[in-house]
Amino acid sequence: MTHSIAIIGASGYTGAELVRIIATHPSFEIKALAANSKAGQPMASVFPHLRHLDLPDLVTWEEIDFDQIDLCFCALPHKTSQEVISKLPKSIKIVDLSADFRLRDPAEYEKWYGNPHAAPEIQKEAVYGLTEFYREEIAGARLVAGTGCNAATGQFILRPLISAGVIDLDDIILDLQCGVSGAGRSLKENLLHAELSEGTNAYAVGGTHRHQGEFDQEFSKLAGRAVKVQFTPHLGPFNRGILATCYVKGEADAVLASLQAAYADEPFISVLPKGETPSTHHVRGSNFCHIGVSGDRIPGRAIIVAALDNLCKGSSGQAVQNANLMLGEDERAGLMLAPCFP
Amino acid sequence: MTHSIAIIGASGYTGAELVRIIATHPSFEIKALAANSKAGQPMASVFPHLRHLDLPDLVTWEEIDFDQIDLCFCALPHKTSQEVISKLPKSIKIVDLSADFRLRDPAEYEKWYGNPHAAPEIQKEAVYGLTEFYREEIAGARLVAGTGCNAATGQFILRPLISAGVIDLDDIILDLQCGVSGAGRSLKENLLHAELSEGTNAYAVGGTHRHQGEFDQEFSKLAGRAVKVQFTPHLGPFNRGILATCYVKGEADAVLASLQAAYADEPFISVLPKGETPSTHHVRGSNFCHIGVSGDRIPGRAIIVAALDNLCKGSSGQAVQNANLMLGEDERAGLMLAPCFP
Amino acid sequence: MTHSIAIIGASGYTGAELVRIIATHPSFEIKALAANSKAGQPMASVFPHLRHLDLPDLVTWEEIDFDQIDLCFCALPHKTSQEVISKLPKSIKIVDLSADFRLRDPAEYEKWYGNPHAAPEIQKEAVYGLTEFYREEIAGARLVAGTGCNAATGQFILRPLISAGVIDLDDIILDLQCGVSGAGRSLKENLLHAELSEGTNAYAVGGTHRHQGEFDQEFSKLAGRAVKVQFTPHLGPFNRGILATCYVKGEADAVLASLQAAYADEPFISVLPKGETPSTHHVRGSNFCHIGVSGDRIPGRAIIVAALDNLCKGSSGQAVQNANLMLGEDERAGLMLAPCFP
Amino acid sequence: MTHSIAIIGASGYTGAELVRIIATHPSFEIKALAANSKAGQPMASVFPHLRHLDLPDLVTWEEIDFDQIDLCFCALPHKTSQEVISKLPKSIKIVDLSADFRLRDPAEYEKWYGNPHAAPEIQKEAVYGLTEFYREEIAGARLVAGTGCNAATGQFILRPLISAGVIDLDDIILDLQCGVSGAGRSLKENLLHAELSEGTNAYAVGGTHRHQGEFDQEFSKLAGRAVKVQFTPHLGPFNRGILATCYVKGEADAVLASLQAAYADEPFISVLPKGETPSTHHVRGSNFCHIGVSGDRIPGRAIIVAALDNLCKGSSGQAVQNANLMLGEDERAGLMLAPCFP
C-alpha cells in the first residue's frame, strides 16, 4: 500500500534529507513539497542533488490539498512550526521535526525558546518521537515530535543507564561534537566554510543549549527525580555527524550490560565490543547509531561514546522511522541505506 | 531471482562501495568477500560502516567456492587482477574494476602500465564497460572491464561530440579535478589529511596519466582517425567526486544538442539547461552524472563541465550497472540511491 | 622610520590579512582601523585571532584623522571604494584593494561592474598594482589599484610569454581553482561549509568573470593587439589558494625560458624546474608564487601551473608590497613570512 | 648576536615548523638540518613550502659539525631521540621535542612508552619545558624536554587551579580534540584524508594516552599528592589545533581569577572575559593560547576551554620559546607571528 506524503519546510536540510530517504522508500510517495519562501520553484533548483527524482514543484503549505495526504512531515523552524501545525486539518498524521512539541510543559518551552507556546492544546497530544523508547505511543499517535539531534544522541547513551540504575545521577557529563548541518541552511557568519573549516570550538557552554530541556524532561521522568546533566556541544568542521563522549560514575561492565540489554533487538543501534570506540565516519548518511563503552583507569568510572548522523538518525531518518510506525509499515522501510564511506 | 555474488579485493574503497550498493540491491546476494591480506577478518573490522550487514567474513580468493557464484566483481589493483582472473573458472561472469582489461591492444597496455600483459588471450573477450555506449556487448559478455573513473567522465562529455562531428578533433582540452578516494586506500604521503586538505595541485601533467590510453583507444576508434586530447588531472581536497571541465572548438548549441540527443533516455546522465554548471556536491554517493554546456565569449568555442562520483558512477556503480545487464536485471536495480547532500 | 597606516574596510578578510602582515612589519604602525558597520567595536571582537595585538578600536572612516596618516589601505567592496576614496584628502597615499581603479577605461569598468564609474578623474592617476611589472610607476604613485587575485595569477603566467612572443595569442586557456576566502566574508548560501566542503564546481563559465576585464586590458596592451583568453574559475573546498592551469600553444622550453628570465631576480616568484608542478599547500599564508612548466605529449603545446595565496600575494600581501615601494621601504619588508604548512 | 642552530629530525612536521618559525627569527641562523632517511636531499624537496629559504641540504645527524652549533633542536621520534641525544657532545644546548625526557622517573617512562630508558643519566639533567612554569630552570638548562602538545594544553588550564586550590582534585575531566598533524607525517590508514576528513572519533579512551604520564607527574608534584585526571583525546578533521574542554568542580569565578592571576603577564596566553569561549581557528599558525571560563547551570561547577596550535605553541613554538631563554634572547623573539585566519 502506498502512502501519500507531504513535506512542509522542504527547502531546508532536514526537508531535503526526507526526500533523499523517501526516494528509495518502498511505500511512501511524495505528493506535495512546501516551502513558502521558494514556492513556484522546482525542487531541483533548490536542491540540485534531487534532480533525478520526479518531484512536485514547491508550493506554499496553504496550497497543499490535504485531502490527498496521509502523513505530513513538518520541517519548519521552531515557532513557525506550531503556527502552521495548529492550522492543519486534524485528520492528518504529522511528524514534526522542529522543537515545538518536544517539551510537554509549556512553561519549559517558553523558558528554553523564549516565546510562549502558541498551540498548547495540540502540545498535549504530541508524542515524543524517540522511536526506540516510545514505540507504542508513536504507533498510535497523530502528532509526533521529533527529538533534537543532540538530545537523541545523549538519550541513546543515558536512558538505559538511568533505567538500570547503574550510574550516579548527579555526575553526568555529556561532551558532544556536532557537524555543521545541525545548524541548518542558515546564513550565519560562523557557518561559512572560511570560518568553520580547519578548526573547532565549543558553544552554549554551561548548560544553555536548548536540547538541555529535553534531557531534563526525559531523564527526570525516567529517574523519578530531577536529573541535570552537564552538556557541552562543540561545532566540528564536518557536515554530518554527532559524536557524544559521556563521562559517568559507574562500572563499565554494568554500563555495557545495560546498553547491550536495551539494544539487543534494535535494528539501528549497535553496541560495540567493550573498549571499541565508534566514529561518525562510519554512520554518515545512514540511520545507524554506534555506541562504545570503555572503563577508565580510575575504578568506578566509565566513558561511553556514541556516533550517529544528525540529519538522518538524529532528525529525518528518525522522522521516517516514526512515520513507518504511524502508518503500519515495517519500521525499517527505506532506512537500511548503508553509510556513505569514505 | 537472486544472484550470488562474490567480491575479490573487498578491502579497498571500490570493494566497500560495491558492498554499500549491493546492501540495498533487490536481487544480489553477497556470498563471498575476498581480500588475501585480511583473510580471516570480519568485514566490519576492515570497514566498520558496514557493521549492520550480515556479511561473510573475508577469505582468500582461492578459498571461494565458485560453484555457488553467479558473478564475481574483481576490485584488485591492476597487474594482480589479470593474474587472478586468469585462474578463475571460465564459467563465472566477471566484472573487473581494474585497468587490466580496458586496453584492447596489449602493446598499449604495456606502454601505459609498464608490464607485459599476462593474460592477453582473456583480454580478447573483455568488453569495455562504459555502459551507456556498450550496452549490448556488455549484456552478452562474460568479462567486462570497468573503465577508469576519469576516462568515464571524459567520455561522457566527448563521445557524443565526436560521433556528431561537432568539434575540432585536434584541439580538445580536458581539465579535471578528482577526489582523493580515486587513489584508493593506499598509504602515500600525499594522501594524508595533513598534506592534502586545504589545497590542490595538478599531477601527471602533459599527457602522462594512464587513463589517456583509454581516451586514445576509444576516441580514435569512434572518429576513425587518431585523436589525442590534452588531459590534466588535479587532486582536490575532497573524498568523492570528479569534475571535468572540457574546452572544445565548436558551437555550444550544436554541442548541447548532441549531448541532449545522446542522453535523452539515459537514467543516470542528466544534461543541464544551457549555461548551468554541475557540481560534484550534487552527485556525491550516487550513480548520477550531470553535464552542463556553456558557450564562451569567443565565438565557436564551448565549455562542457561534467560531474560524477568517482567511486560510484566512475567505478563500483558502473560495475553494478554492468552486472545488472549481464544478469538480465533492470539496469537501474540498486542504483537509484539519491546523492548524499550535504 | 615608522609609517602611520590606516585601514578602511578592516572587517573583511583582506582587511584582517593586512593586519596580520603588518603585525610583524618592521616599519608600519596601524593608527586607524575603519569599518563603518562595526564602528565602536574592538578589532578582537570582529577577528579574535588578532587579540594579541594592541590595535585601535574600529571607527567609521569619516572619524579617521588623516593628518596623522601616511598611507591608507582601502579594503572596501567595489563601488563603495570609489565613493570613499573620492572623499579622502588628496595628500594621502592610497592602496586600494577593490576593483574600482583597475580598469583604465571607465567604459570597460561599467561593462564589467554594471555601474558608471563615480570617480573617473581619480581613475586617471591610479597605477595598476601588479608589483613585478609596474614597480617604477607604483613607487611614484599616490593611488595604486590592487589587482584581482585571479588576474594576478594569470598575469604571472602569461605576461612573460606574451612579451617574449613564444605563444599563440589566440589560443590561451586559463583554468583556475580559487579558495573560498576569495569571495570574502559574505553571507551567501554557496559559501556555507555544508554547501562547499567536500566538492567543487565551476562558475562564471564562458568568459563572464570580472577579472577578464583585467586580462583584456593588460594582455592587449602588452601584445599591441586584442588578446582574449578563455578563463574558467572553479570554487574549491579550501580557504586560501589559487591554482591556475594554463594551456598554451608554444614550446615548453621557450615558455620556461621566458618565465625564468622574467623572474630571475624576483624575491616572491619561483619558477620550478621543468616538469615540476606547484601546489597551493606550499604557498598558503605567504606572499610567494610558484610556477611550473610542462610540455604536453602533443608537440608544440605547453602547460603552465601557478600557485599563490589569494588573500596574501593575490591581495593584501601585494598591497603591502606596493605600500613598501610607495613609502621607500624594502619591497620585502614584512612579507617574508614562510608558508604555513601543514 | 646570531646563534647557530641545528635541527635533527628535520623531515617531520615539527622539524618543518621549527624552520618556518626560525625563518623570521631575528637572531637564529640554521646551520644544519639532519634527517637520516632523506640525507642528501634539499629541504625544499621534502618541504616545498620552504623553497624560498636559503637552507643547508639535509644530512645525517652524524655529519653535523657540532663545533659550530650553539643549540640543537631534536625533533626525532621518541626512543630514537634518547639514542641520538646520548651521543651528542655534552657542550651543546639541546631542546628535545620528543617524549624521551619528559618523565623524570625512568619507571614511569617505561610504563607509558614500553621500552626501558636508554639514557637515564641524561634524563636527570633534563628540565621539563613548559616555559610559563619552568622559566628559570629552562634559562639555565643544557637539555630541555619539550612537553606533549596535549599535555601542555591541559596544564595551561589546570596548573593554576591546582596551585590555587580552587577545584576538587579527584574529579577532573579533560576532553580534548586534536588536529591530525599531532600524529606526525606518518603513513597510517586512519590519517588518510579519505578516512579522517568529514568526521571525528575518540581514541585512547579510558586513560591510556601517553600524555597522561605527564599529567600524573606534574599535577601530583604540584598538589603534593596523587592527582589523576580523566583524559579523552579525539581526532578532529583539521590539521592544526587542540581544543581542550575541561570539567571541574569549583566556582567559576575563583577558577577565572586563578587563571587571570597566573597569566596576567604572559605574552602568549590570553584569558578571555568570563563566558567567552576560544576557538582553534583563532590561534592557528601561532604561539598563542586562548583560555575561556564558564560556570555551569549546576552551582559549583566550571568548564574551562583552551585552544592552541599543537605544532606551534604545543611543540615547535614552545621549543623556540625555550631556546630563546636558554640563549639569553627575548622569550618572544620570532614568535609574534599572528595566527593565519581564515
General description of the model:
The structure is a homotetramer of 342-residue chains. Chain A has 342 residues and is α/β, with parallel strands linked by helices. Chain A has helices spanning 13-22, 43-46, 80-85, 106-113, 120-123, 135-139, 149-164, 193-196, 211-223, 252-263, 312-326; strands spanning 3-8, 28-34, 58-59, 71-74, 93-96, 127-128, 143-145, 173-178, 201-202, 230-235, 242-249, 269-271, 289-295, 301-308. In chain A, helix 3 links the parallel strand 4 (71-74) and strand 5 (93-96). At the B-C interface, strand 8, helix 8, strand 9, strand 10 and strand 11 of B face strand 8, helix 8, strand 9, strand 10 and strand 11 of C.
